[in-house]
Design brief:
The model has no long low-confidence stretch (mean pLDDT 97). By secondary structure, the chain is an alpha/beta fold. It folds into two domains: 135 residues, Aspartate Aminotransferase, domain 1 (Alpha-Beta Complex), CATH 3.90.1150.10; 199 residues, 3-Layer(aba) Sandwich (Aspartate Aminotransferase, domain 2). It is built from 14 helices and 13 strands. The strands form three sheets. The chain has a seven-stranded mixed beta sheet with strand order 3-9-8-7-6-4-5, with helices on both faces. The chain is globular. Bound molecules: 4'-deoxy-4'-aminopyridoxal-5'-phosphate. 4'-deoxy-4'-aminopyridoxal-5'-phosphate binds next to helix 4. GO terms for molecular function: 8-amino-7-oxononanoate synthase activity; ligase activity; pyridoxal phosphate binding. It comes from Pontibacillus halophilus JSM 076056 = DSM 19796. Its EC number is 2.3.1.47.
Length: 393
Amino acid sequence: MKGFEHLQRELEEMKDNGTYRQLIPLESEQGSTVTIKGKEVIQLSSNNYLGLTSHKRLKGAATKAVEQYGVGTGSVRTIAGTLTMHEEYERKLAKFKHTEAALVFQSGFTTNQGVLSSMLTDEDVVISDELNHASIIDGIRLTKSGRKIYKHVDMDSLEEQLLASMDYRTRLIVTDGVFSMDGNIAPLPAIVELAEKYDALVMVDDAHASGVLGKNGRGTVNHFGLDGRVHIQVGTLSKAIGVLGGYVVTSETLKEYLIHKGRPFLFSTSHPPAVTAACDAAIDVLLEEPQLIEKLWENTKFFKDGLQKLGFDTGISETPITPVLVGDDALTHRFSDELFNEGVFAQGIVYPTVPKGSGRIRTIVTAEHSKEELATALSAFERAGRNLGLLKE
Ligand code: PMP
């Protein structure tokens, strides 16, 4: 069809410079192994940390909800699309997170967008870690507030930006709890101390920490014993929780404000009953099956140690997100292809998702992986790494 020629040209350029990516459909349920192109491979690229995408209790809750309440809600939350189960879930989530209130959005992405774009005006300033997630960056782009960036996890740089922000009404520091490409944890105790010193608010995006860090997976804030000292926690229901959605846990006041001013909340249809029921069951699983989180961390240690013993550089990772640093973009993709031939699905991540020259295979183990699967994956990494000259003979 005519009219898209300039877009096609850009796509061709992406093919030339190696940044074009084809979608890779799974032909099976998400799990420790998946079927791709007719082949069963070990899955090391999902965010399904606890294996909840196919957990019996979540599936059962979703099925029951469909039978009882149907498949959709037919309206946005603020008109006719709030079900009692939405509100029950939010109360349960707030209690779980030890906060005053919780509000669910359609996704983690829209939660960041909605919170940041609505609560800040030109009287306020947002101070953001340079490696924060795209949804935080986009949320900031939508505000009229002052914008400052501090160097990645650099507390001197954060303090400098705070000192330069004292004329604003509200200073909001925003950080990922766990950084999604390197797997490092934000230095939250130091951030909170600086925030208290300079009278700033703190917002943490716990997309990769919910269900992973803290008691029963309560997240980074709980992991550091900072309950009650962080003003806004955002999280996703799409990774460890295994379903779909995003949430903010915060004060009653901000919740009420977002119901009135959070644009994705106001203008996009609410979650289907099956989604909410499954998320509700996920909290029960976090509370009643802590062995899943223990297994996740046991697997993380086994796999990370294994990669390091083989001689791979896993960067600054402290969590189940373990990058295997390669550098060159084309070589990163070749490594990923080679791993696939060896029976492992581990996607390469290159520019623009990570800085130029820092291509990596980003692996995430889950609680579902068996030791045998992880040992098989390590052998595949060893063979592929040697074939490509990434490991010494
Ligand atoms: N924040 C971070 C740090 C993320 O990694 C992601 C997911 N890529 C999101 C927010 C968005 O979450 P969701 O997939 O639920 O929209």
